[in-house]
Design a protein that fits this description.
The chain is mainly alpha-helical and 123 residues long. Helices cover 59% and strands 3% of the residues. It is built from 6 helices and 2 strands. Strands 1-2 form a two-stranded antiparallel ribbon. β1 and β2 form a beta hairpin. α3 packs across α6. The longest helix has 15 residues. The protein starts with a helix and ends in a 7-residue tail after the last helix.
Length: 123
């Protein structure tokens, strides 16, 4: 997978999820892409939508095995090792968190990944 293919796939996910959350502006979504993670219901549920499309989260639970499979498909090789390490460090990030009503597990997971992976990637 090339960098361009990865970004193209990310744009498709963003184009599906962004219209579902009208309170999340393009500016807020761009901020999330840069690592600014507002802890609001709408932003968290937008993040959850993208993570679900990536098969990283399901009903508020982190899907470790699926995430590792997707990583091999979706990321260029030069990101894989660091992402695998970060994903393993964050495997318990959603434990004990309830998905309803604020999509808190998605925020917790993405925050953990941001802290543990030096090259932050999010559509």
């Amino acid at each position: 997978v090339t960098e361009e293919q990865m970004r193209s796939a990310g744009k498709l996910m963003r184009d599906v999820c962004l219209p579902k959350f009208p309170k999340v502006s393009v500016e807020v979504a761009d901020g999330i892409t840069k690592g600014n993670l507002p802890n609001t219901k709408d932003a968290n549920c937008y993040i959850n939508c993208i993570l679900e499309m990536m098969q990283a989260i399901k009903k508020g639970k982190f899907q470790l095995d699926q995430t590792l499979k997707q990583l091999d498909i979706m990321l260029p090789d030069h990101y894989k090792d660091e992402y695998k390490q970060g994903i393993h460090k964050c495997k318990d990030a959603t434990v004990g968190l309830k998905n309803a009503p604020n999509c808190d597990p998605a925020h917790a997971l993405l925050s953990c990944l941001k802290e543990n992976i030096s090259i932050f990637l999010f559509p």
